[in-house]
Amino acid sequence: MTWDVVAAILRLVFSLYILLFIFRVVLSWFPQLNLNRFPYNVAAWPTEPFLIPTRKLVPTFGGVDITPFIWVAIVSLMQELLIGQQGLVTMMTRLN
Questions:
Q1: 57 contacts 65 by C-beta, under 8 angstroms
Q2: Could you report the per-residue pLDDT of 23-80, keeping only the tens digit for each?
Q3: What is the reported pLDDT for 44?
Q4: Whole-structure pTM over 0.70, yes or no?
């Protein structure tokens, strides 16, 4: 597996998770929605393992769950550090 493939996979995974966390932000505006039903579970299922422990550390702010925002920031930072212009994986692809 070359570094270009690793970068492409990471780019896809990071972009998908950022999108899913943004969907979670939007879904939080509608508390009456059942997140266990399709299509809401498509965003809830992969993000909930990250949000549950974060909710234990970060309380709601004015009644708003800010943990999806935190994870958008974390994933964006990881994306930049790994596959950004000066990212580790990006630098490795330039060595080949």
A1: no
A2: 999 988 888 889 899 999 999 999 999 999 999 999 888 878 899 999 999 999 999 9
A3: 93
A4: yes
| C-alpha to C-alpha distance for 87 and 21, rounded to whole angstroms | 22
- Return phi, psi of residue 49, to 5°: -60, -25
Q: Which domain holds residue 69?
A: 3-95
Interatomic CA distance for residues 58 and 68, integer angstroms = 11
Q: Up-side HSE of residue 46: CA atoms within 13 Å toward CB? A: 13
Phi/psi for 64 (5° steps) reads -110, 130
- Side-chain-facing half-sphere of 15: CA atoms under 13 Å: 8
Nearest-angstrom CA–CA distance, 53 and 50: 6
pLDDT at 95 exceeding the cut of 90: no
Q: Per the structure, how many domains does the chain have? A: 1
